[in-house]
């Protein structure tokens, strides 16, 4: 999980975590496995990974995404694996059934968890996907952290001028990849169509493929964010929107702890257009000033400190 020319937005959270770890004074060396090779590609990378381990003599090897653990050969160096979503949830097809390919991926992720000294998941709901109590006991939940220097409230008018957006539109931002069936953009479209019955100016604003550091301006230009995913690990975008002061309407998915932590910032809705549309309408009719809605403990530096604690536990075992 790392940005590449083919997938420039993949693994941005990993890059940010690395920067935060380095800022804490830790040496981090990144080993890129490449994109598109699948399980066989990871296995073929074992010789290169073994050489890197011999050369660098690390204290810990940290794998991001379950099946990537196939690239790590047998080693005495403690292995930590972070699971981020599809690696344990699987990927559904349009009917909601988990694809056979991703079922294999789940099994590979469980194998990676058994091999690991310690594991990390980005939400409690994702940790529950580990089928053994033994695996869950050695797994720590470290939710994606947000850099408040990057994701912060910005004036909506300035953002709309910057992006060339109409000042009077009611924008429901959908910052997800519409090619991923699990995101269910058609449900978001139906929810906004329901909202338009009482608020004709409302529009679904699909945003993806943007430079990560430009996203705060896109959040700032929006009035509310919608999440309609069938399955999620986190997702990071919810925390980013909250840090920018943007309220969120979401089905019950991913980091569901947020619903209780930020009741004035994130609204849960049933998995249907009518309830989602009603929730959007209720959120939009509530006047609010732009201030960060991110709950305590979810800043990037804090996430990095928690990861370091896991490294120490793995090394001490």
CATH architecture of the largest domain: 3-Layer(aba) Sandwich
Structural class: alpha/beta
Strand content: 5-15%
Q: Would you list the SSEs in sequence order as H and E?
A: HHHEEHHEHHEHEHEHEHEHEHH
Number of helical segments with 4 or more residues: 14
Mean pLDDT: 92
Helix content: 40-55%
Rg computed from alpha carbons, rounded to a whole number of angstroms: 20 Å
Could you name the ranges where pLDDT drops below 50 across 5 or more consecutive residues?
Answer: none
Main pleated-sheet profile: 5 strands, parallel
Q: Tell me the CATH topology of the largest domain.
A: Rossmann fold
Strand order of the largest sheet: 6-5-7-8-9
C-alpha geometry: globular
The CATH superfamily of the largest domain is Glycogen Phosphorylase B
Number of spatially distinct domains: 2
Query: CATH class of the largest domain, anyone?
Result: Alpha Beta
Description:
With 317 residues, the protein is an alpha/beta fold. The chain folds into two domains: 12-145 and 300-316, Rossmann fold; 156-284, Glycogen Phosphorylase B (Rossmann fold), CATH 3.40.50. The protein is built from 14 helices and nine strands. The strands form two sheets. The chain has a five-stranded parallel β-sheet with strand order 6-5-7-8-9, with helices on both faces. The protein has a four-stranded parallel β-sheet with strand order 1-2-3-4, with helices on both faces. Helix 9 (185-195) links the parallel strand 5 (170-174) and strand 6 (202-206). The radius of gyration is 20 Å and the shape is globular. It starts with 11 loop residues before the first helix and ends with a helix. The model has no long low-confidence stretch (mean pLDDT 92).
């Amino acid at each position: 999980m790392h940005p590449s020319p083919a997938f420039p937005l993949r693994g941005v959270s990993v890059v940010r975590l690395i920067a935060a770890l380095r800022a804490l004074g830790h040496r981090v060396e990144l080993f890129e496995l490449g994109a598109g090779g699948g399980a066989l590609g990871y296995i073929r990378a074992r010789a290169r990974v073994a050489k890197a381990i011999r050369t660098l003599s690390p204290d810990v090897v940290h794998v991001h995404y379950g099946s990537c653990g196939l690239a790590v050969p047998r080693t005495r160096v403690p292995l930590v694996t972070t699971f981020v979503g599809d690696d344990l949830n699987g990927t559904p097809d349009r009917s909601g059934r988990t694809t056979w390919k991703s079922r294999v991926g789940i099994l590979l992720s469980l194998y990676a968890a058994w091999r690991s000294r310690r594991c990390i998941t980005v939400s409690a709901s994702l940790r529950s996907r580990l089928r053994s109590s033994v695996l869950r006991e050695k797994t720590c939940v470290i939710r994606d952290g947000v850099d408040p220097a990057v994701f912060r409230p910005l004036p909506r008018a300035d953002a709309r001028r910057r992006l060339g957006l109409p000042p009077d539109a009611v924008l429901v931002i959908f910052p997800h990849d519409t090619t991923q069936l699990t995101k269910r953009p058609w449900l978001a479209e139906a929810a906004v169509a329901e909202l338009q019955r009482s608020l004709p100016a409302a529009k679904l604003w699909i945003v993806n493929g943007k430079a990560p550091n430009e996203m705060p301006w896109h959040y700032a230009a929006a009035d509310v964010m919608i999440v309609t995913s069938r399955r999620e690990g986190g997702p990071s975008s919810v925390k980013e929107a909250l840090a920018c002061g943007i309220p969120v309407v979401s089905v019950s998915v991913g980091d569901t702890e947020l619903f209780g932590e930020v009741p004035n910032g994130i609204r849960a809705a049933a998995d249907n257009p009518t309830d989602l549309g009603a929730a959007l309408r209720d959120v939009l009719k509530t006047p609010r000033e732009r201030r960060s809605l991110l709950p305590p403990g979810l800043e990037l530096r804090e996430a990095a400190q928690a990861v370091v604690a896991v490294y120490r536990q793995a090394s001490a075992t």
